[in-house]
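Chapter summary example.
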Amino acid sequence: MGLNKQLVKTLFSVTIGIGMLIAFGTVNVSQFITTTGVAEFKPVLRRYDGSDITVLNSRHLLDSLDKSMKRIDVMRAEWIKEFDMYKGKANRALKHMTSTLPLERVVFNALTRNVTIHIGVAGGSISACRYGYGYLIRDFMQDILSVPVTVNNAAIGATDSRYYANCMGAHMNIDNLDLVLWEFAANDFIKSIGPWAQEEFTRMILSLANQPQLVFVNFLHGAQMKRRPCINNERIASVPISEYYDVPSISMPDALCPFVKKGDYVQFLNEDMAHPNPKNHRLMTTFLVEILHTALSNILDKVESGVWTHTMNVYEQFGDNFKLPKPLFNETQLFLPKCWSALATKRSPNMTLIPIEANGWEAEVGTGINPSRTDLKLFWESKRENASITFRLYIAPYLDLNCTVSIVASSAGHCGKVRAYFDDDEEHSAIVDGRYSYKITKTERISINVKPGNHTITLVALSENPFRLAAIATSYNLNRFV
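The structure predicted for these 482 residues follows.
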């Protein structure tokens, strides 16, 4: 059951005043319902008493917002000239718009409380560039809203949704995010993993106490354009997950499909004919701006109709008391994941995966990194057969739950296998194969019932072929959904 259906029943138990607001059409029911009840953990409640509206009026911010929306209209016209294909394509790329209420709250608080907006980018090599859409939307929001906006581009090439569902906390402060941009449609598709990994990531973000706005950013890789399938993972993942969890989803395939099918795709690719070029990133930014435009318009409508304060207070109450619905694709879920990673960005180059003993293993930097990239492909690599490496892990007690432990390989076609075991218990070891036809992260569970406390984990190479260890991750076993 999705958030829409799940919350409809709850509306009958809320106050008569809320019911009257809905009945008289002063609150958009679909938007109101679909953005509540996403917190797995108790968030920090905000309270709105109407003084924020006074601040808006005293600073003439309503006029500023109106002017900002007009500037967006002007910019939209300028982009139509650059992208002769853009006119009429925005609606197609934004078919799965859903709710922007989390973003409305973020923007409103930034304007009235003088707080910084924090953007987080989780993606692969498409996002790990200095001219990427994450930086462009930051600059635009900063210019339009006249508030500080930061971007933490945690994108790392050759990663996927499952890696970030486990390890996003290793790359950014996930408790201080306002807008999260997900970009793995191409890598998940290339790796042929199903929607369960994206759903794990989605639930992890929607469970955050800060309740950030999540947006799916669906790019096409050059390899997909050359074969002209005009598809990525969004049909089997982003679209149903967007509809179920009410997450806006931007479809670059829907925007570029007419060009891809005609073979006219070179104008959107870099020299490597694989990654989107600056023009492609600017086009994606236009779609993100459309989402911002919608949020600004909704703020104005709610403030001018006098329902903003009440709507936001109810939103906060639902966020405090409601839970995520049962998963759409998964039988289990990642619960309080923790990660020790060697992968890094140039902004935060320090690895957190440090061994206590390494015999025949060395820290390596992957090839193919260039100055325009923002990531570092670091990993621990075995150099010979029987090479061993040991790490110390501490798993904090939480209720009565045990943990699942996974290791993440930076895989490649020439890589070998390792044997992994806990606390010198070699009899109960797991074999993990680091070989994969694509050079992309590969997450494998090695134990599903580890008790909290201090542990060691040892990896032993089983051949001369190198094994590349990128991360170790844990999550508590929560096989029930309440």
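To summarize the output: The CA atoms of residues 46 and 357 lie 47 Å apart.
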